[in-house]
Design a protein that fits this description.
The chain has a domain of about 80 residues. The longest helix has about 80 residues. Helix 3 crosses helix 5. By secondary structure, the protein is mainly α. The N terminus and C terminus are likely disordered.
């Protein structure tokens, strides 16, 4: 009876051990299968990425083939007439450059000449102002002298002054008589030579009319 009881217990123990090993095996198998699926997924993703990269490279290559290349200039492609035109244009450009340089040089020379002329004009204006001042002083002195002479003739007797007036130069006579009092001059003219007195009268009348005639002309 004891041996019969031991057998079921042994069988039960073996079943438990087998069940544990079977569970462990199943867990290991599931883990292996999971790892296998993960590697397959990664391999598939890498293959897809490689395929996409290759397709992108092929697209770039096709775009490069389709895009037109920039034409390069080749002088051998020009005709003789085109070459002749280019040569003429080059010569014309060189001529224009030379002409521009000549114009610049001429302009510089003109500017330098203008500066020298302006300097000379300034000096001449200074000299002219000095001369004008001297002439004014001279005229004032001469007028003073002339007035003193006129005073002398006015104080002389009419016949004595007339005798001198008959021999004086007409220009001097005009300067003197032009400053004399009319009453004194009239008495002197009455004592002068008739021809000389007539000439003096005409000159005095002409001198007095000149300013009026100039005003009418202007």
């Amino acid at each position: 009876m004891k041996s019969l009881r031991i057998i079921p217990v042994t069988v039960l123990a073996m079943a438990l051990v087998f069940g544990l090993k079977l569970g462990t095996f199943w867990s290991d198998t599931q883990g292996f299968l999971f790892d296998l699926e993960v590697s397959d997924v990664k391999a598939a993703e890498k293959a897809a990425e490689k395929k996409e990269d290759k397709a992108a490279e092929e697209d770039h290559a096709d775009e490069a083939e389709d895009s037109p290349e920039k034409p390069s200039f080749d002088a051998s492609d020009l005709t003789e007439s085109e070459i002749e035109v280019l040569q003429k244009l080059t010569e014309r450009r060189e001529q224009l450059v030379v002409k521009q340089k000549e114009l610049d040089l001429r302009d510089n020379l003109l500017q330098a000449t203008e500066k020298r002329i302006d300097g000379k004009i300034a000096k001449l204006k200074g000299i002219e102002a000095t001369i004008q001042d001297l002439l004014k002083k001279y005229d004032a002195q001469e007028l003073k002298k002339l007035k003193s002479i006129v005073t002398i003739y006015e104080k002389m007797k009419a016949k004595d002054a007339a005798r001198i007036f008959n021999t004086l130069d007409m220009k001097v006579l005009l300067d003197v008589t032009g400053l004399m009092k009319e009453s004194k001059l009239a008495s002197i003219l009455g004592k002068m030579n008739g021809q000389r007195a007539q000439e003096l009268t005409i000159e005095l009348a002409t001198r007095k009319q000149l300013p009026d005639q100039d005003k009418k002309k202007s």
